[in-house]
Amino acid sequence: MSSVQKRNIFSAQQEFTPAVRNPAVEDKVFSLFQPDILIPGQFLATTKSKTHRDPEQRLMLAVLEDAVWCFQNGLRAKDKKKQDLSREAEEWLMEEDSKWLFSFNEICDLLGLEAKYIRKRLVLWKIESLSARGKAAQRTAHPNRKTNGRTKSQRYLRAVAGF
Q1: Which residues contact 70 (CB under 8 A, 6 or more apart)?
Q2: Tell me: the pLDDT tens digits for 103-121?
Q3: Distance between CA 142 and CA 140 in Å, rounded?
């Protein structure tokens, strides 16, 4: 053997000699290659979106969203059809005793929402919206006149909301 070949063999032996083993590092490395044991529920919980809803729940949410939209947009409308839709939506939103599957209370229960809170906030929104519109009309009709009392519709809405 030539001296060059001896050096190559010697250097190859040095390269492959094992170093001092660290058990902590080995445990971490080996844990990467061990299988994770999960039951199907645990696996699906990690892959599911937090806002995932069943098709039925999405339909109920769409019904609720449409009712609120009709209620709010038809309130100030001059179009008779929009006013009728707003009135129907308000009746549906304010109905408390219905056990029908698509009643406001049932939809809120199935979606995990507080029906009384939503109802109360919608009534407050309506009162504020009507009073803002009424104040604008009063300013144009009677700019120097002050009114301290509530209108009949505002008193009714407050009574319905439980104030």
Answers
A1: 82, 85, 86, 88, 89
A2: 999 999 988 899 999 999 9
A3: 6
